[in-house]
Design goal:
Blueprint lengths: L2 H7 L2 H10 L9 H12 L2 H9 L3 H8 L9 E2 H10 L18 H9 L6 H10 L4 E2 L8 E3 L2 H16 L10 E3 L4 H15 L2 E2 L8 H10 L25 H12 L3 E4 L2 E4 L1 H8 L5 H13 L6 H11 L4 E2 H8 L11 H15 L3 E6 L3 E6 L1 H12 L5
Antiparallel strand pairs: 1-3, 2-3, 4-9, 5-7, 6-7, 8-10, 9-10
Amino acid sequence: MNLSDMLGYADIQQLSRIADVYRCECNGHSKNELIQSILSTVSRNDVFEAQISTMKMEDLRFLNSLLFEVRSSYSLEDLIARVQQARFGETEIREEAAPPPKSKRTRKKAEQEPQPLSPRDIIAKFKHQGWLFNGFSGPNRYLFQVPNDLKSRFRDTLKRKFAAELQYTDEPPVYRDEQMLIQDDIRQLLHYAYHNEIQLTPDGSMYKRFSVQLLDRFGVREELPGKGEWRFGYGKHFNYYPNRMSYLYDYCYHAKYISEQQAVLTVTTIGQERIVAKPPGEAEEMYRYWLKLYKSPIPNLLSLVHWINALSEEWVTVQSLRQVLLPFIKPYYYDSAEMILEQRIMMMMVHLGLLRLGEHPEHGTVVRMTKAGRAIVAGVSLAEPIF
């Protein structure tokens, strides 16, 4: 539903709160006047942009988590978890049933220092702004929704805000484009596994000599991880294989092309069919699986990919993209926000054929979405839910 529909279902108390936020001048006892006044005020770009420009970063992160998903409703528990995820490096705020007594000095100091809002307070603030609405009957009464037209306006407004901070360039003299290579290397992996008896270690990974021989067959050269390097969170054997190879292996396992039986890697009947012919829609499925595989360490991966897609229609410097997107990325153990953006997201998008990577003589590293990448990202976002 759009904002006008949700306002029509809202009670006069909520309408009055929304009208107060936007300083609407109207008859507060008339539901119709309240609705018309709110719609008239919210439709003004200057009012809408002013609301976004004054938002704190944690509020922007929370909002960002709602903008690109297919799902239309959220439970209170889900929203509270999202607010907590938006507090990077901050102490979680929880409601206490009986707060401990404070001395006069402690109480006075606490009154002077602004206290962070609890997750419920932030959700209530979004409701008062008309950005979140409760369901109106039955089981939906306890679910929250964002008006569809406001979602589009948020995306458009944030896109203009972000784009104003970016540096766009002309086409670099050389760039890297890996479209189709990863699908070719699926066949290479399966062909090698079919014609060789690949023995597995007790933890299920391939012995080093098999990994090295496989890497030599791939279209993109990678090195095995260094000894003692801390690597986890991005796949089944991520601690033993380099990034792209690890994803390739996991995808083949997920697609049931390979199986690990009796300490030997074998190619299944489905895998043998994949050697002969590539199935339709594989590029989209590989992108979808990557989102699922990397979602745990990067909870807002979907929105970050969509922002890269929206902001990289032309060649843009990685440095300027970094400045815009890093505030939305939470470090994951030994992975800094910079490493997550450049290695776990952008480089994997290059491997998946979604993004081109170039070197500009004046502006350094630059990226641009491929035509196929834009279609895949847009198409998957409009399909059924990913998770």
